[in-house]
């Protein structure tokens, strides 16, 4: 027998020897003569191996799984014992099989011997290459028998099936929350431990997973790999593209159970629900006025500060909020990506579209807290409520007189400019 110092290889050689002895017994039983061995041994061996595999007489006493060789049973037992005899000398990570360690070592060496035949991408493991190539072939051999969805690898199907079964076998010891995948639990636990092992080398921000770091890096690189095939807009996150696509499809999966209104974004539904509850959790420290959202409060604060830090590079117009600047810039670019499915009119922002659609629906969700008057948009409600509060936000910088409405201030300013738009020249 060939000499080797690797105990696993020695075991394999011993089992090969045992198989060879058993095979000789089978040949003798079938009266295979020495001169006939060269012709019939292959056939006899195949018959023997098929029978042996069918028998699978090495059975695990823990779970009942059976194996064709004693060696395979011993490897399987490590699942139950937790034994990992093969350790990496670079990071001390341990593995149940030698070949798993060999595959892991390529992380440290950077070796990627398996190259895709369709593109230039390379992989450290043949299994990863095989999975990757299904992107090119479109092969999805694993199909869910519940909903018909197909997957390229079996583990993805197995993970998907938990949606139908509702199975969440992995529980957090800290808070009891359950997860369908161990990887999701591991990420969740980092919330309790505060561990963030992945650091951005550009800004030193830390993250709980490599995927979160990879996504974050697009802030620095400007990469937007997720392309909308309808309008050409690009996004850095797949979730952002998914939300954007609802503009084109008109899909509104989030419905208010109070009034039946539907929304394309969950955040918009949550904000809408505050109309029914009357909740306004954000308070202005200057005047005590309350708002539905932090963005509304932030927008309101510019009334007190008069600050407009965001300027348009094309025309120089300044804005108090960056989203206002982005919306304004679409005037110059001509981009109007939000379309009304009722009349075909297009808009630069989703809010403008949403407000416009109320013309068709007749919806007036904003009710005055002082009287029964209702409005289709929040800005009209805010303007109306100044009648009750007596609030006069618009002040003349010439004489200090204040007005409830901006239009009234504009009319007043004509006194100072001596502008008389309705003056008629009479012939002498």
What key attributes describe this structure?
single chain, 428 residues, alpha+beta, Double Stranded RNA Binding Domain, two-stranded antiparallel sheet, 26 strands, 46% helix, elongated
Beta-strand content estimate: 5-15%
With strands numbered from the N-terminus, the spatial order across the biggest sheet is 1-2
Alpha plus pi helix count = 15
Within CATH, the superfamily of the domain at 274-417 carries the name Classic Zinc Finger
Low-pLDDT segments: 1-5, 9-35
Model description:
- This protein has 428 residues and is an alpha+beta fold.
- The chain has a domain of 144 residues: 2-Layer Sandwich (Double Stranded RNA Binding Domain).
- Helix content is 46%, strand content 12%.
- The strands form 13 sheets. It has a two-stranded antiparallel ribbon. A two-stranded antiparallel sheet has the order 3-4. Strands 5-6 form a two-stranded antiparallel ribbon.
- The longest helix has 23 residues.
- The relative contact order is 0.02.
